[in-house]
């Protein structure tokens, strides 16, 4: 039976039912942060001499060079078992050997069809491994016959039959209402299950419609779905899934820099002494607020954003640090001076939305890029993504009081504080190099390689 003959009342009922399922089935996920703190590991600092509430970061580096130095730092962390080149099951080996014989195409085009934050400056024609060329673009003119279509956060549409007289096709494809089609196919799956359990006679009819409407046909572009949120889920309609976890088809970590290259990277050489900690959050999750408040009440801090704000309102960073203005001729945005503002503080509090394996986000990497020391609460395997001695893992302290005491002591010890920057100055990256290599920065070539291995449009259907 052709789609155009379906009763519109039945379609409306199915769409309405799908909306209810989306709300009550856990399709929408609201992550939270666990505030439990395990026992402390090496949280005590050996104070040498009287406290030195230093301000000059370069002065701290100079003292560290004379008392410790890179040779001792490298030997110390080699003895602790940190890999020199980085290896971790939490990261895909994107720099390893590649089987060029598995490549079935020498050119791949990716059309970024649905996105929220993928940067425009990622658009390019890339030269990748094995002689593969890769066109990554948001332009349907440049990629008029894409080998794959990428949908980030926006779920990919299920495939429709190419019948020009089908009303549903006209409504959805011509107007690009892809969410409606997702709901349509999702509803079919749910109704098939319900009708199967009740023995309804329409089972075979709905199964046929679902297979006909939702299945990608050979010759059509591959559908790629990208979800980097904590509760990442496959859409069920994609051929390739991109997520932050090593078990996903293609991994994309948050450790890259391409999506914020246009920001002000003026970094301060002097750190605040009267205000030690920077924190900014505008998504006020109750668990995260409670965790932040329990620590920040014991430390001098500036809280920007909407949550626990103590700087007199929003957009106050440029009032405190006018030198951080990115462009005097345009209205400031919170992100264009973020790194500059962070750089004035010795510490940045970084709390993930939820503590999930491998979910290590920009909250931590921004602080590292800004030359501050992150105080981190989040992924239990966070060290699989980081250089040695680069963060303060808040979960390793037995109490917030102990953590606050450690931070205060560290703030008055230039040599101990400088050691948290030694990885960068001495080139001891460990797994951080792998995390950068598996980030958004390298995603175009890695995705094109995956599409090539599947033969692009000639790939087997789902």
UniProtKB/TrEMBL annotation:
Fucosyltransferase C-terminal domain segment(s): 272-456
UniProt cross-references to Pfam families, sorted A to Z: Glyco_transf_10
The places in or outside the cell where this protein is found are: Golgi apparatus, Golgi stack membrane
Entry keyword Transmembrane helix: yes
Stated EC number for the protein is 2.4.1.-
Q: Which InterPro entries match?
A: Alpha-1_3/4-FUT_pln, Glyco_tran_10_C, Glyco_trans_10, GT10-like_C_sf
The main enzyme category here is transferase
Origin species: Tetracentron sinense
**Which stretches are transmembrane?**
6-28, 180-206
An example Gene Ontology CC term for this record: Golgi cisterna membrane
Descriptive protein name: Fucosyltransferase
Cited SUPFAM superfamilies? UDP-Glycosyltransferase/glycogen phosphorylase (SSF53756)
- Keyword set, alphabetical order: Glycosyltransferase, Golgi apparatus, Membrane, Transferase, Transmembrane, Transmembrane helix
The annotated topology with respect to the bilayer is: Single-pass type II membrane protein
Pathway where it operates: Protein modification; protein glycosylation
Q: Where mainly located?
A: Golgi
**What's a single GO MF annotation on this record?**
alpha-(1->3)-fucosyltransferase activity
Tell me which family the UniProt entry assigns to this protein: Belongs to the glycosyltransferase 10 family.
